[in-house]
Design goal:
Blueprint: E1 6-10, E2 13-14, H1 19-31, E3 36-41, E4 43-44, E5 53-56, H2 64-85, E6 92-96, E7 105-108, H3 112-119, H4 133-154, E8 160-163, H5 166-176, E9 182-184, H6 196-209, E10 217-222, H7 226-229, H8 231-241, E11 246-251, H9 260-265, E12 272-275, H10 282-287, E13 290-293, H11 302-309, E14 314-317, E15 333-335, H12 341-353, H13 355-369, H14 374-402
Parallel strand pairs: 1-3, 1-6, 2-4, 3-5, 6-7, 7-8, 8-9, 10-11, 10-13, 11-12, 13-14, 14-15
Protein backbone atom coordinates (compact mmCIF):
# COMPACT_ATOMS: atom_id res chain seq x y z
CA UNK A 1 0.00 0.00 0.00
CA UNK A 2 1.32 3.41 -0.95
CA UNK A 3 2.19 5.54 2.08
CA UNK A 4 0.13 8.63 2.66
CA UNK A 5 1.89 11.97 2.20
CA UNK A 6 3.06 13.23 5.59
CA UNK A 7 1.94 16.77 6.52
CA UNK A 8 3.17 18.91 9.42
CA UNK A 9 0.55 21.42 10.60
CA UNK A 10 2.00 24.27 12.67
CA UNK A 11 -0.37 26.32 14.84
CA UNK A 12 -0.01 27.69 18.41
CA UNK A 13 -3.34 26.06 19.30
CA UNK A 14 -6.29 24.38 17.64
CA UNK A 15 -9.95 24.23 18.65
CA UNK A 16 -13.37 24.83 17.12
CA UNK A 17 -14.15 28.03 19.05
CA UNK A 18 -11.94 30.46 17.11
CA UNK A 19 -12.22 31.24 13.41
CA UNK A 20 -8.79 30.39 12.00
CA UNK A 21 -8.24 27.45 14.34
CA UNK A 22 -11.76 26.14 13.66
CA UNK A 23 -11.03 26.14 9.94
CA UNK A 24 -7.80 24.15 10.33
CA UNK A 25 -9.40 21.69 12.76
CA UNK A 26 -12.27 20.99 10.36
CA UNK A 27 -9.83 20.51 7.48
CA UNK A 28 -7.39 18.13 9.13
CA UNK A 29 -10.13 15.87 10.53
CA UNK A 30 -11.44 15.35 6.99
CA UNK A 31 -8.06 15.22 5.24
CA UNK A 32 -6.65 12.63 7.67
CA UNK A 33 -8.05 9.83 5.50
CA UNK A 34 -5.76 10.90 2.64
CA UNK A 35 -2.79 12.34 4.53
CA UNK A 36 -0.71 11.44 7.57
CA UNK A 37 -1.35 14.55 9.67
CA UNK A 38 1.08 15.67 12.40
CA UNK A 39 0.08 18.75 14.42
CA UNK A 40 2.67 20.89 16.21
CA UNK A 41 0.85 23.05 18.75
CA UNK A 42 0.84 23.98 22.43
CA UNK A 43 -2.76 22.83 22.90
CA UNK A 44 -5.45 21.09 20.90
CA UNK A 45 -9.16 20.67 21.67
CA UNK A 46 -12.32 19.57 19.85
CA UNK A 47 -10.28 17.43 17.42
CA UNK A 48 -10.43 13.64 17.05
CA UNK A 49 -6.87 12.68 18.03
CA UNK A 50 -7.38 9.12 16.81
CA UNK A 51 -7.04 10.47 13.27
CA UNK A 52 -3.93 12.62 13.72
CA UNK A 53 -0.65 12.74 15.66
CA UNK A 54 -0.19 15.62 18.08
CA UNK A 55 3.33 16.80 18.92
CA UNK A 56 2.96 19.06 21.93
CA UNK A 57 5.12 22.17 21.78
CA UNK A 58 5.51 23.37 25.39
CA UNK A 59 4.14 26.85 25.90
CA UNK A 60 5.12 29.54 28.37
CA UNK A 61 2.97 31.94 30.35
CA UNK A 62 3.21 35.65 29.73
CA UNK A 63 2.14 38.38 27.31
CA UNK A 64 0.92 37.25 23.90
CA UNK A 65 4.00 38.61 22.13
CA UNK A 66 6.34 36.61 24.37
CA UNK A 67 4.36 33.38 24.03
CA UNK A 68 4.18 33.84 20.25
CA UNK A 69 7.94 34.32 19.90
CA UNK A 70 8.52 31.30 22.10
CA UNK A 71 6.20 29.12 19.99
CA UNK A 72 7.75 30.41 16.76
CA UNK A 73 11.19 29.28 17.90
CA UNK A 74 10.08 26.14 19.75
CA UNK A 75 8.10 24.64 16.89
CA UNK A 76 11.10 24.94 14.57
CA UNK A 77 13.30 23.21 17.18
CA UNK A 78 10.74 20.47 17.87
CA UNK A 79 10.38 19.64 14.17
CA UNK A 80 14.18 19.68 13.72
CA UNK A 81 14.51 17.33 16.69
CA UNK A 82 11.84 14.96 15.34
CA UNK A 83 13.53 14.93 11.96
CA UNK A 84 17.00 14.23 13.36
CA UNK A 85 16.17 11.70 16.07
CA UNK A 86 12.82 10.22 15.02
CA UNK A 87 13.20 10.25 11.25
CA UNK A 88 10.08 12.35 10.75
CA UNK A 89 10.49 14.02 7.40
CA UNK A 90 7.49 15.89 6.03
CA UNK A 91 6.27 16.09 2.46
CA UNK A 92 4.56 19.41 3.25
CA UNK A 93 4.58 21.96 6.06
CA UNK A 94 1.26 23.79 6.45
CA UNK A 95 0.76 26.86 8.66
CA UNK A 96 -2.34 28.97 9.27
CA UNK A 97 -0.60 32.34 9.20
CA UNK A 98 3.02 33.18 10.00
CA UNK A 99 3.92 30.52 12.55
CA UNK A 100 7.11 29.36 10.81
CA UNK A 101 9.50 30.36 8.04
CA UNK A 102 9.61 27.04 6.19
CA UNK A 103 5.92 26.50 5.38
CA UNK A 104 5.17 25.16 1.92
CA UNK A 105 1.58 26.40 2.30
CA UNK A 106 0.31 29.24 4.49
CA UNK A 107 -3.40 29.86 5.00
CA UNK A 108 -3.89 33.63 5.18
CA UNK A 109 -6.75 34.65 7.48
CA UNK A 110 -5.53 38.18 8.22
CA UNK A 111 -2.97 40.55 6.70
CA UNK A 112 -1.58 42.45 9.67
CA UNK A 113 0.12 44.96 7.38
CA UNK A 114 -3.26 45.97 5.97
CA UNK A 115 -4.96 46.00 9.38
CA UNK A 116 -2.21 48.17 10.86
CA UNK A 117 -2.57 50.60 7.96
CA UNK A 118 -6.23 51.03 8.85
CA UNK A 119 -5.88 51.07 12.64
CA UNK A 120 -2.48 52.62 13.42
CA UNK A 121 -3.88 56.06 14.27
CA UNK A 122 -6.15 54.56 16.93
CA UNK A 123 -3.10 52.85 18.45
CA UNK A 124 -1.19 56.14 18.87
CA UNK A 125 -0.33 56.84 22.52
CA UNK A 126 -1.47 60.45 22.31
CA UNK A 127 -4.92 59.28 21.23
CA UNK A 128 -5.40 57.15 24.34
CA UNK A 129 -5.32 57.55 28.14
CA UNK A 130 -2.07 56.64 29.89
CA UNK A 131 -3.65 53.61 31.59
CA UNK A 132 -3.91 51.94 28.17
CA UNK A 133 -0.31 52.64 27.14
CA UNK A 134 1.15 49.28 28.29
CA UNK A 135 -1.47 47.42 26.25
CA UNK A 136 -0.95 49.73 23.26
CA UNK A 137 2.85 49.36 23.34
CA UNK A 138 2.50 45.58 23.51
CA UNK A 139 0.03 45.59 20.60
CA UNK A 140 2.21 47.86 18.45
CA UNK A 141 5.31 45.74 19.07
CA UNK A 142 3.32 42.64 18.16
CA UNK A 143 2.06 44.16 14.92
CA UNK A 144 5.54 45.29 13.87
CA UNK A 145 6.89 41.78 14.41
CA UNK A 146 3.98 40.24 12.50
CA UNK A 147 4.42 42.71 9.63
CA UNK A 148 8.13 41.91 9.38
CA UNK A 149 7.36 38.19 9.24
CA UNK A 150 4.66 38.79 6.63
CA UNK A 151 7.20 40.53 4.41
CA UNK A 152 9.49 37.54 4.78
CA UNK A 153 6.79 34.92 4.07
CA UNK A 154 4.22 36.62 1.82
CA UNK A 155 6.28 39.00 -0.34
CA UNK A 156 8.08 36.28 -2.28
CA UNK A 157 6.44 33.41 -4.10
CA UNK A 158 8.23 30.52 -2.39
CA UNK A 159 5.23 29.84 -0.15
CA UNK A 160 1.88 28.92 -1.67
CA UNK A 161 -0.84 31.04 -0.05
CA UNK A 162 -4.37 29.74 0.57
CA UNK A 163 -6.64 32.77 0.98
CA UNK A 164 -10.18 32.91 2.34
CA UNK A 165 -11.51 35.61 0.00
CA UNK A 166 -10.75 37.75 -3.03
CA UNK A 167 -10.37 40.59 -0.54
CA UNK A 168 -7.32 38.83 0.89
CA UNK A 169 -5.86 38.50 -2.61
CA UNK A 170 -6.26 42.26 -3.06
CA UNK A 171 -4.73 43.00 0.35
CA UNK A 172 -1.70 40.83 -0.42
CA UNK A 173 -1.20 42.49 -3.78
CA UNK A 174 -1.55 45.98 -2.29
CA UNK A 175 0.76 45.32 0.65
CA UNK A 176 3.42 43.10 -0.94
CA UNK A 177 2.89 43.21 -4.70
CA UNK A 178 1.96 39.52 -4.46
CA UNK A 179 0.11 38.27 -7.56
CA UNK A 180 0.90 34.61 -8.06
CA UNK A 181 0.75 31.28 -6.20
CA UNK A 182 -2.50 31.98 -4.39
CA UNK A 183 -5.48 29.62 -4.05
CA UNK A 184 -8.96 30.74 -2.98
CA UNK A 185 -10.60 28.51 -0.34
CA UNK A 186 -13.74 29.97 1.24
CA UNK A 187 -14.53 29.02 4.84
CA UNK A 188 -17.38 26.65 5.63
CA UNK A 189 -20.20 25.87 8.02
CA UNK A 190 -21.40 22.77 9.89
CA UNK A 191 -24.92 22.17 8.58
CA UNK A 192 -25.65 19.55 11.25
CA UNK A 193 -25.26 22.22 13.93
CA UNK A 194 -26.39 25.23 11.96
CA UNK A 195 -29.79 24.91 10.27
CA UNK A 196 -33.27 26.44 10.62
CA UNK A 197 -34.84 23.36 12.20
CA UNK A 198 -32.23 23.21 14.97
CA UNK A 199 -32.48 26.96 15.51
CA UNK A 200 -36.24 26.67 15.94
CA UNK A 201 -35.94 23.75 18.37
CA UNK A 202 -33.50 25.70 20.56
CA UNK A 203 -35.15 29.11 20.33
CA UNK A 204 -37.57 29.08 23.25
CA UNK A 205 -35.01 27.89 25.81
CA UNK A 206 -32.24 30.05 24.38
CA UNK A 207 -34.29 33.22 24.68
CA UNK A 208 -35.49 32.26 28.15
CA UNK A 209 -31.89 31.70 29.29
CA UNK A 210 -30.96 35.18 28.02
CA UNK A 211 -34.10 36.72 29.56
CA UNK A 212 -35.42 37.96 26.25
CA UNK A 213 -39.14 38.67 26.21
CA UNK A 214 -41.36 37.79 23.25
CA UNK A 215 -41.46 41.39 22.06
CA UNK A 216 -37.71 42.03 22.18
CA UNK A 217 -35.72 41.95 18.91
CA UNK A 218 -32.20 40.60 19.40
CA UNK A 219 -29.31 41.67 17.16
CA UNK A 220 -26.32 39.35 17.38
CA UNK A 221 -22.59 40.05 16.88
CA UNK A 222 -19.93 37.39 17.47
CA UNK A 223 -16.18 37.91 17.68
CA UNK A 224 -13.27 39.31 19.66
CA UNK A 225 -11.52 42.63 18.91
CA UNK A 226 -14.76 44.61 19.00
CA UNK A 227 -13.28 47.75 17.48
CA UNK A 228 -12.37 45.75 14.40
CA UNK A 229 -15.77 44.02 14.41
CA UNK A 230 -17.54 47.40 14.26
CA UNK A 231 -19.29 47.31 17.63
CA UNK A 232 -19.16 51.10 17.96
CA UNK A 233 -21.04 51.52 14.67
CA UNK A 234 -23.63 48.95 15.74
CA UNK A 235 -24.25 50.69 19.08
CA UNK A 236 -24.61 54.06 17.37
CA UNK A 237 -26.98 52.63 14.76
CA UNK A 238 -29.26 50.97 17.33
CA UNK A 239 -29.18 54.06 19.56
CA UNK A 240 -30.20 56.35 16.71
CA UNK A 241 -33.32 54.28 15.96
CA UNK A 242 -34.89 54.91 19.36
CA UNK A 243 -36.72 51.56 19.29
CA UNK A 244 -36.95 50.27 22.87
CA UNK A 245 -37.44 46.65 21.81
CA UNK A 246 -34.00 46.38 20.20
CA UNK A 247 -31.37 44.41 22.15
CA UNK A 248 -27.72 43.83 21.24
CA UNK A 249 -26.08 40.47 22.04
CA UNK A 250 -22.27 40.51 21.81
CA UNK A 251 -20.41 37.21 22.04
CA UNK A 252 -16.69 37.33 22.75
CA UNK A 253 -14.09 39.18 24.76
CA UNK A 254 -12.11 42.39 24.35
CA UNK A 255 -10.51 44.12 27.34
CA UNK A 256 -9.27 46.98 25.17
CA UNK A 257 -12.71 48.20 24.07
CA UNK A 258 -14.43 50.56 26.53
CA UNK A 259 -18.12 50.47 25.71
CA UNK A 260 -19.77 51.97 28.85
CA UNK A 261 -19.51 55.58 27.69
CA UNK A 262 -20.66 54.71 24.15
CA UNK A 263 -23.70 52.91 25.56
CA UNK A 264 -24.58 55.85 27.84
CA UNK A 265 -24.21 58.34 25.02
CA UNK A 266 -26.61 56.30 22.90
CA UNK A 267 -29.08 55.49 25.66
CA UNK A 268 -28.41 51.76 25.61
CA UNK A 269 -27.01 51.17 29.11
CA UNK A 270 -29.30 48.20 29.80
CA UNK A 271 -29.83 46.95 26.27
CA UNK A 272 -26.53 45.28 25.42
CA UNK A 273 -25.49 41.91 26.85
CA UNK A 274 -21.94 40.52 26.73
CA UNK A 275 -21.91 36.73 26.39
CA UNK A 276 -19.06 34.19 26.58
CA UNK A 277 -17.96 32.03 23.67
CA UNK A 278 -19.37 28.55 24.25
CA UNK A 279 -19.07 25.25 22.32
CA UNK A 280 -22.80 25.25 21.50
CA UNK A 281 -22.78 28.68 19.88
CA UNK A 282 -25.88 27.73 17.87
CA UNK A 283 -27.96 28.62 20.94
CA UNK A 284 -27.02 32.28 20.38
CA UNK A 285 -28.20 32.13 16.76
CA UNK A 286 -31.41 30.55 18.03
CA UNK A 287 -32.02 33.43 20.43
CA UNK A 288 -31.29 36.14 17.84
CA UNK A 289 -33.60 37.72 15.27
CA UNK A 290 -30.83 38.96 12.98
CA UNK A 291 -27.04 39.16 12.70
CA UNK A 292 -25.12 42.40 12.20
CA UNK A 293 -21.38 42.41 11.43
CA UNK A 294 -20.17 45.90 10.39
CA UNK A 295 -16.50 44.83 10.40
CA UNK A 296 -13.85 47.44 9.70
CA UNK A 297 -11.58 44.66 8.39
CA UNK A 298 -12.21 40.92 8.16
CA UNK A 299 -10.67 38.31 5.89
CA UNK A 300 -13.89 36.29 5.94
CA UNK A 301 -15.73 35.97 9.32
CA UNK A 302 -17.46 32.63 9.88
CA UNK A 303 -20.35 33.77 12.19
CA UNK A 304 -22.31 35.58 9.42
CA UNK A 305 -22.21 32.41 7.29
CA UNK A 306 -23.34 30.33 10.29
CA UNK A 307 -26.18 32.79 10.90
CA UNK A 308 -27.22 32.46 7.25
CA UNK A 309 -27.20 28.67 7.59
CA UNK A 310 -29.58 29.06 10.54
CA UNK A 311 -31.94 31.12 8.38
CA UNK A 312 -31.19 34.49 9.98
CA UNK A 313 -31.09 37.71 7.96
CA UNK A 314 -27.57 39.14 8.11
CA UNK A 315 -25.85 42.46 7.53
CA UNK A 316 -22.17 42.22 6.65
CA UNK A 317 -19.57 44.84 5.83
CA UNK A 318 -18.08 45.18 2.37
CA UNK A 319 -14.71 45.01 4.19
CA UNK A 320 -15.43 41.41 5.25
CA UNK A 321 -14.60 38.66 2.78
CA UNK A 322 -17.85 36.84 3.55
CA UNK A 323 -19.67 39.67 1.74
CA UNK A 324 -18.49 38.06 -1.51
CA UNK A 325 -21.07 35.32 -0.89
CA UNK A 326 -23.95 37.72 -0.09
CA UNK A 327 -26.30 39.21 -2.69
CA UNK A 328 -27.52 42.50 -1.28
CA UNK A 329 -31.27 42.47 -0.66
CA UNK A 330 -31.57 38.84 -1.79
CA UNK A 331 -29.95 36.54 0.79
CA UNK A 332 -28.55 39.24 3.07
CA UNK A 333 -27.47 42.85 3.16
CA UNK A 334 -24.07 44.46 2.53
CA UNK A 335 -23.02 47.62 4.37
CA UNK A 336 -20.77 49.48 1.95
CA UNK A 337 -19.15 51.72 4.59
CA UNK A 338 -18.62 49.98 7.96
CA UNK A 339 -18.39 53.37 9.72
CA UNK A 340 -21.76 54.58 8.35
CA UNK A 341 -24.07 54.09 11.33
CA UNK A 342 -26.89 55.83 9.48
CA UNK A 343 -26.94 53.28 6.66
CA UNK A 344 -26.61 50.46 9.17
CA UNK A 345 -29.57 51.87 11.11
CA UNK A 346 -31.66 51.98 7.93
CA UNK A 347 -30.90 48.32 7.20
CA UNK A 348 -31.70 47.27 10.79
CA UNK A 349 -34.98 49.23 10.65
CA UNK A 350 -35.89 47.56 7.36
CA UNK A 351 -35.30 44.08 8.78
CA UNK A 352 -36.99 44.84 12.10
CA UNK A 353 -40.12 46.25 10.46
CA UNK A 354 -40.94 43.26 8.25
CA UNK A 355 -41.38 39.69 9.43
CA UNK A 356 -42.02 38.69 5.80
CA UNK A 357 -38.67 40.16 4.72
CA UNK A 358 -36.88 38.34 7.53
CA UNK A 359 -38.48 35.06 6.53
CA UNK A 360 -37.83 35.44 2.78
CA UNK A 361 -34.24 36.60 3.17
CA UNK A 362 -33.62 33.88 5.76
CA UNK A 363 -34.81 31.13 3.41
CA UNK A 364 -32.52 32.35 0.63
CA UNK A 365 -29.64 32.86 3.09
CA UNK A 366 -29.89 29.25 4.23
CA UNK A 367 -29.84 28.05 0.61
CA UNK A 368 -26.67 30.06 -0.06
CA UNK A 369 -24.92 28.84 3.08
CA UNK A 370 -25.65 25.20 2.22
CA UNK A 371 -23.20 25.48 -0.68
CA UNK A 372 -20.29 26.27 1.67
CA UNK A 373 -19.78 23.27 3.94
CA UNK A 374 -16.64 22.26 5.81
CA UNK A 375 -16.52 19.17 3.59
CA UNK A 376 -16.28 21.40 0.53
CA UNK A 377 -13.68 23.54 2.28
CA UNK A 378 -11.55 20.48 3.13
CA UNK A 379 -11.81 19.08 -0.40
CA UNK A 380 -10.63 22.38 -1.85
CA UNK A 381 -7.74 22.54 0.61
CA UNK A 382 -6.91 18.96 -0.32
CA UNK A 383 -6.57 20.07 -3.94
CA UNK A 384 -4.18 22.79 -2.77
CA UNK A 385 -2.10 20.14 -0.98
CA UNK A 386 -2.12 17.91 -4.07
CA UNK A 387 -1.02 20.74 -6.33
CA UNK A 388 1.81 21.72 -4.00
CA UNK A 389 2.98 18.10 -3.73
CA UNK A 390 3.05 17.77 -7.52
CA UNK A 391 4.95 21.03 -7.76
CA UNK A 392 7.52 19.90 -5.18
CA UNK A 393 7.86 16.59 -6.99
CA UNK A 394 8.61 18.34 -10.27
CA UNK A 395 11.13 20.63 -8.60
CA UNK A 396 12.91 17.69 -6.94
CA UNK A 397 12.96 15.80 -10.22
CA UNK A 398 14.45 18.79 -12.05
CA UNK A 399 17.05 19.27 -9.32
CA UNK A 400 18.11 15.61 -9.48
CA UNK A 401 18.50 15.78 -13.28
CA UNK A 402 20.61 18.92 -13.03
CA UNK A 403 22.87 17.31 -10.45
Amino acid sequence: MKAKPRIAVVSPFLDKRHGTERCVAEQIERLAQDYEIHVYSASIKDVDLSKITWHRVPGIAGPHLVSYIWFFLANHFRRWWDGLFRGLDYDLVFSPGINCLDADISAVHIVFTEFYRLAHQELALRQNPARKWPWLIHRKLSYHLFMALERGVYAGDETLLAVTSHKMEQDLERCFGRKGRMALVYNGVDLDQMNPARRESLREKARRDLRLSDGEFAILLIGNDWKKKGLRCLIEAVGSLGIPDLRILVVGHDESFSYDEILRRNGLENRMTILPIVPQVESYYAAADMYAGPSLEDSFAIPPLEAMACGLPVIVSRQAGVSELVRHGVDGFVLEDPTDSRQLAELIQRIYASADLRREVGVRAEATARRYTWQRNAEEMGKVFEGCLREKGRNLSEASRQS
